[in-house]
Amino acid sequence: MSRIRLAAATSVTALSLGLSACMGGGDIPSASTPITQSEAQMGAKAHPQLLDEFGGAMSGSHAQYVAQVGKNIAVQSGLGNARESFTVSLLNSPVNNAFAIPGGYIYTTRQLVALMNNEAELAGVLGHEVGHVAARHSQRRQAAAQRNTLLGAAGAILSGLLLGNSGLGQQLGQAALQGSQLLTLKFSRSQELEADELGIRYLNQAGYDPRAMGTVLRSLALQNALDARVQGRDNARLPEWASTHPDPASRVQTALSKAQATGGAGGITNRDTFLSRIDGLTYGDDPSQGVVEGRQFIHPDLRLAFTAPQGFYMMNGTRAVSINGQSGQAQFTLAPYNNNLDSYVASVFAGLSKQQQVRPQSIQKTSVNGLPAAYGTARVNSNSGQVDVTVFAYEFSNDRAYHFLAITPAGRASTFNQMFSSMRRIDARTAANVIPRVIDVVTVQSGDTVKSLARRMAYSDSQVERFRVLNGLTSNENVRPGQKIKIVVRGR
């Protein structure tokens, strides 16, 4: 949760990139039409807000390399002046995601780049997004649903929890998505298939191994499954509202088969070059955005920390932290504060729904670990039955307050009491001890094994599994001397 901003909602972590394998879907456009002035203006208007909402654009050698590969693959699209017309950004975000908007704006997160294992995979991901631009998918979707115009849903999302059509629990998840993220959600299946085929075509034309589309999908599917196990979720699929693209696991073999059919198998991958260029890339949460460590969230810049209940998992977003479990959901964020906690809590409730009035029975004042606090709970009707919505707010200064917004089945509001009471300030020493994780590219030495290398991973759990997924290794695949591999270590 970076520099938590006003009137903000969460960016859900672990978003799934779905580079669909083509299974048909009509003719693939030649995409020779240049990006129009109106498209360029549309993208330019949205670009700064997207950067802001996804942690900002990174700079330096890592970002320069990603932009170089992206522009080179964009040339294969046939769009006029493709190299000059495309803007490729590496986002400082700990989620696995990539997306594109009209006007030639292409984005990938550092977390997704860290999951890749060669330059062909990077080119494949960026090529898929170039395909969306070339095929004008955003424009087609907006024409079909004018209410979802570029950034047009931001106002509704920023108003908070939307109670209504598909059940309150689902709506909390939808409210957790940022306005600009909605621009990147839910291309149709045929559009995803079309972008996949274009991406594979671009790989082949550029001389890359087109199988990279399938291998990066496989890594992402394995990462989704690992995240589910580590977080204690009962399946490897993300909630529907947390997925920008369809599930990658179902498409790995189709992507590999489609690539094989191009006749380009055996093209370049540039593995060692890629690994050398991403060495030192931040992995996981950036301390400036707050860090999730197990059930604890700690923000060294804001000097605060809290602990999620047992059995719940947290996802750190650019604007909020979401807390998810079988018996409830919550998010931690902030709203404008005028030095009055009662009115703060009331204003959060007031912004929850345009369909029905949501008011707590009362607003209670208390103190939590020395912090002035106030809270209220409202019983609300939803399609799935009655639920309790709780707002629990804390004052950190005369002009700064934060709050939890939680939803539980009716009568279960106490589910989050332990979390509410865990909110605390942290001191300078604790804040200074929050050190980021980074990618460290090393060369396998004689005697090194998967197990011995995995022990160097900066995690206390699932070290071997994390190492294998990070390096695209199957369960029975070993390392060999001289091979470059990635490990995750603590930075300096």
UniProtKB/TrEMBL annotation:
Q: Which CDD domains match?
A: LysM, M48C_Oma1-like
Q: Which GO terms describe its biological process?
A: proteolysis involved in protein catabolic process
Show which residues constitute the signal peptide. 1-21
Keyword Chloroplast among record annotations: no
List cellular component terms (GO).
Answer: membrane
Q: Which UniProt keywords apply?
A: Hydrolase, Metal-binding, Metalloprotease, Protease, Signal, Zinc
Give a single Pfam family match. Peptidase_M48
Return the InterPro entries for the record. LysM, LysM_dom_sf, Mito/Outer_Membr_Metalloprot, Peptidase_M48
Query: Which cofactors does this gene product need?
Result: Zn(2+)
Q: Start and end of every LysM domain?
A: 440-487
* MF terms (GO), sorted A to Z: metal ion binding; metalloendopeptidase activity
Kindly give the PANTHER family that the UniProt entry links to this protein: METALLOENDOPEPTIDASE OMA1, METALLOENDOPEPTIDASE OMA1, MITOCHONDRIAL
- Name-wise, this protein is LysM peptidoglycan-binding domain-containing protein
Please tell me the species this chain comes from: Erythrobacter aureus
